[in-house]
Amino acid sequence: MDRLENPVSFPDRFIVHEHDVIVVGAGGAGLRAAIEASGAGVTVGVICKSLLGKAHTVMAEGGMAAAMGHVDDRDNWEVHFADTMRGGQYLNNPIMAEHHAKESPQRVRELEGWGAVFDRTKDGKILQRNFGGHRYPRLAHVGDRTGLELIRTLQDHGIHQGMEVFMEMTVVSLLKTSGRISGVIGYDRERGRMHVWKAKAVILATGGIGKAFRITSNSWEGTGDGHSLAYHAGAELMDMEFVQFHPTGMVWPPSVRGILVTEGVRGEGGVLRNSEGKRFMFDEVPEAYRNQVATSEEEGWRYVCGDKEANRPPELLTRDHVARCINREIKAGRGSPHGGVYLDIAWIKEKIPDASGHIKRKLPSMYHQFKQLAGVDITQERMEVGPTTHYVMGGVAVDGTTQQSCVPGLFAAGEVTAGLHGANRLGGNSLSDLIVFGKLAGEHAAKFAKANKAVEVDAAEVNATTAEIEKAFDRPNGENPFAIQSDLQNAMQDLVGIVRTHNEMELALTKISEFKRRYHKVGITGHREYNPGWHTAIDLHCMLTVSESITRCAMERKESRGAQFREDFPQKSAECGTFNLLTKKSADGSMQVVRRPIVPMPAHLQAIIDRMK
Amino acid sequence: MSQQPSPIVNAPSEATDATHTVQFRIWRGNASGGAFQNYSVAVSEGMVVLDCVHRIQAEQAPDLAVRWNCKAGKCGSCSAEINGKPCLMCMTRMETLPPGETVTLEPMQTFPLVRDLVADVSWNYRVKKNIKPFKPRKPDHADGSWTMMQEDVDRVQEFRKCIECFLCQDVCHVLRDHHKHDEFIGPRFLMYTAALEMHPLDIEDRVSDLKNKDGIGYCNITKCCTKVCPEHIGITDNAIIPMKERVVDEFYDPVTRLFRMFKSKKV
């Protein structure tokens, strides 16, 4: 504290907190990490950008993948592991994928012990549903509101575990002393006061980056905060070129464009059709999945009904592929009136009695969402859907056994990390990722905090950071932060979207530099209390960092693989399959992209993959 | 502003789509005072009230405070009062409001004001923490799992749809008009308690708390909470009334009490 009292404004202007472990983010990963660390006997603070229980996890719909084998007893962790690696086009960290596949059933059962109430099988077990890229029905779910169940369960259990929760506060910088994490600095929305949280270890669990794009399923919070915090603190980001465009977002009315339509619709038998009424997903099946896909509509329906002899309908291929096929149909002029394609679940009334009741029971929030926002009754009518920016596979590079980054004391879990999903994430693997790796991060951050003494925060760093984010108040006539944000979103959507080319991305980089110049002139009106303009200005810094990282990596990866499709390099390249791309901040402050060989596949895991080919 | 800002994402990207202009009257201020201010907004087909607020924020009042997250009725953040009625702003389409009339927007009135449309809902979090947490019976199986039938969890699942928007708390006259925040936990948490009490695995007893601490007797079943619930949960009929019945059984009915001594607590 002594060192901190020197600067003029300190400590009056700062509220100082002290914990062993600080968790930044209170979605599934953050809460699971906080529960684990609290249980390990260290003091824990959780900082949430919104109110507790409102994090983006709440939007997850379809389910969480865990090879419990309740619906199909042929399922086990080996099949789940092989599915995850195949979906990620083998750029995944196999150690993480193995741990994930082995651990997730246990983590799901644990939730039940904390009060979660999953849908049930006829014999009273947790029910599992079909999803894209998963060989067997594997997703534990609650209708189409699984994320709500997950976050509420963790929240209601977590508040009794001793953690201190800081709601509506945003972290703007990680603090380091002698190369180690010493805490974080941020502000509260309500009053605009600055806070310093001293900590021995910090866990980033800040989620995704969707707000860097115009059409996204992400809420305002998904501005890549953790990615940016880690990068500027000297950690490495990995696989940032891989941004998942979910095939089915709403396209109409315009104000709801991008809002997610769960893959569960297809898991329950929903089919995709173009304006000619054709099920276009049968037109193209990737080589790696040829043996797993139905050859007729009739076989696809039998799969949905649980026929073990049948293969999956092509609508349940991986998201990268389905999104590209939809894009192709739209570009070829076979789209729907509002620039999407048709997703039809109403057709199952030809197959089952009381289809309307079934749809409302299995997909209640989809029914609700379309009825209320688009005036469409999905039990009777087709939905219009199109791709939406949904998830980033890339993130902080961590050690797959501890979740620690290359910065001592800095851990990460959930969407903000890279490694598990490789070039493309399977639906349902995100919620299980949160609870499996949230737990791991919490465990190791607590260990780190017990093994290491606290280091004092650097007052100069605290003051410099504060001065930086307050500058905007001195420029009441500066650039409008909302306008810069909107221009950035348009640039990323149009130039670094589903289909990419070198020239367009070069243009994107030029634009990003221009946005950075404008960001330095950003101005704020009003005062510090709950001022969205100011908050957006601060978030812009993060969005610009992740946008540059995505663009630079996408340019460097001269191939098409998983979520990255390069029109100028439409094929997969064997050479590009040997490395992951890392983004690092170099000494002069510029962004550097380097190749790192992929994590070698242990022999016992290679054997599984070969067997499941 | 030095330049013409473009509307932010989630508001329609072409203002030229606008079909008409709507007048808004929005509360601006904080705990120490404030007033309504007028804004006119270009509205296009399909827009919801939250889109209009965002458009005002992007083009006219960047410091207009509003709380929101998912914009799809799933997180329960954007609760406010539209023309005096508690609603989610993200799920209220402009077409559903009376045409040609000024739209009045206010923060929820039952909670203290933070700023503009943002209310301080922290009381709700304190209330929840005081309710006895879930306590499961021993697992039925060696792997730590339980057997539960779908029909046994249907009712609890209905309650667990709650998105904690607190609109039911906002509308409840026990809180809104009589300010019984210290004696009454409100419909949200009566239902939360019901969800725990009806959970097939739970072995905790919260019935005496309902009577003595949570103020269930204050509820006189006007069903205002049920009417505003955006998830259409039967708060009064399915949660509160059964809990009132349990309180009656436990504390006021000697025959039932005697009978219950011979059977397990959970029914």
| CATH A-level architecture of the largest domain in chain B | Orthogonal Bundle
Helical segment tally of chain A?
Answer: 17
Question: Strand share of the residues of chain B?
Answer: 5-15%
Helical residues, percent of chain B: 25-40%
- Helix and strand content put the structural class of chain B at alpha+beta
CATH hierarchy class name of the largest domain in chain A: Alpha Beta
Q: Main sheet of chain B: which strands, in order across?
A: 2-1-5-3-4
Mean pLDDT of chain B: 91
Q: SS-based structural class of chain A?
A: alpha/beta
Q: Unreliable stretches of chain B, pLDDT < 50, 5 or more residues?
A: 1-15
Main sheet: strands, sense, barrel of chain B: 5 strands, mixed
Please report which band the strand proportion of chain A falls in: under 5%, 5-15%, 15-25%, 25-35%, 35-45% or over 45%. 15-25%
Number of helices of chain B: 10
In CATH, the homologous superfamily of the largest domain in chain B goes by the name: Alpha-helical ferredoxin
Oligomer: heterodimer
Brief account:
By secondary structure, chain A is an alpha/beta fold. Chain A contains 17 helices and 20 strands. Chain A has helices at 2-5, 28-39, 77-87, 94-113, 146-158, 225-232, 264-267, 297-304, 319-331, 355-362, 364-374, 429-451, 459-470, 481-495, 502-519, 532-556, 603-612, and strands spanning 14-24, 44-47, 64-65, 128-129, 139-140, 164-166, 169-177, 180-188, 194-204, 237-238, 243-250, 271-273, 341-344, 383-392, 395-396, 410-412, 499-500, 565-566, 579-585, 591-597.
